[in-house]
Write a structure and sequence with these properties.
By secondary structure, this protein is an alpha/beta fold. It has helices at residues 10-21, 33-43, 52-58, 68-77, 108-115, 130-134, 154-166, 180-197; strands spanning 2-6, 25-29, 48-50, 61-64, 86-89, 94-95, 99-100, 120-123, 139-140, 143-144, 146-151, 170-173. Strand 1 (2-6), helix 1 and strand 2 form a beta-alpha-beta unit. The termini are far apart.
């Protein structure tokens, strides 16, 4: 699979490293070509540096590893190159006090879909710190990490499910893109609990056998 990456930050590094090692062709795109070159060298496994537009042109799947504030603007500039492609959004629209910046409006993923209406937007990989995604693989208490995935196009979802497995995780069908905002709100809650309260968010939910009552 050809994967274009928009961004040169920690999430781009963590996820693209797994995919390059799994044998995918990876191109790292950045406004700063020197940062793109450094990240491509760090990833290795044939990863190549490029501009944002070249990375978008290259990828069958394009990872938007961009800050929320910049995401829609960058994607709007690249909308022609993203036509018909899978656009994978891993952003979290969080502000001071772990406030959800999209509260009452379209989710970050829906904003990308509006900016590039010809792309097939999928939301995933937003619930964990980048260091979790660097693990090889992310396994806790003998169980692989589950990754909720939201999107409307079945072919796009199948591609992202494959990429989730390449990270060593298990994909979980999270519903259509309309539910991406629930993933973003979950991240806001979890981060507030983890960072703000020092609480174990994993302890919130009972085991599946008790989900509908004892």
């Amino acid at each position: 699979m050809r994967i274009g990456v928009l961004g040169t930050g920690n999430m781009a590094d963590a996820l693209a490293t797994h995919w390059a090692r799994a044998g995918h062709e990876v191109t790292i795109g950045g406004r700063d070509t020197h940062k793109a070159e450094r990240l491509a060298r760090r990833i290795g496994s044939g990863a190549m540096p490029a501009s944002l537009s070249a990375a978008a042109e290259f990828g069958q799947v394009v990872l938007a590893a961009l800050p929320f504030e910049a995401g829609a603007g960058v994607v709007r500039e690249l909308r022609a190159a993203l036509e018909g492609k899978v656009l994978l959004d891993c952003s979290n629209p969080l502000g001071p006090g772990f406030r959800l910046l999209t509260d009452g409006g379209p989710s970050a993923a829906q904003q990308l879909a509006a900016a590039a209406p010809g792309a097939h937007v999928v939301k995933a990989f937003n619930l964990c710190h980048e260091d979790v995604w660097r693990m090889r693989p992310p396994v806790f208490d003998g169980r692989a990490l589950a990754v909720p995935v939201c999107g409307d196009d079945q072919v796009a979802l199948a591609c992202v499910h494959e990429l989730v497995r390449d990270v060593g995780c298990e994909p979980v069908a999270g519903g259509g893109l309309a539910r991406a905002g629930l993933l973003e709100a979950t991240a806001a809650l979890f981060i507030a609990l983890w960072v703000g309260e020092g609480a174990d968010a994993q302890a919130i939910a009972p085991p599946l056998a008790y989900a509908a009552g004892a």
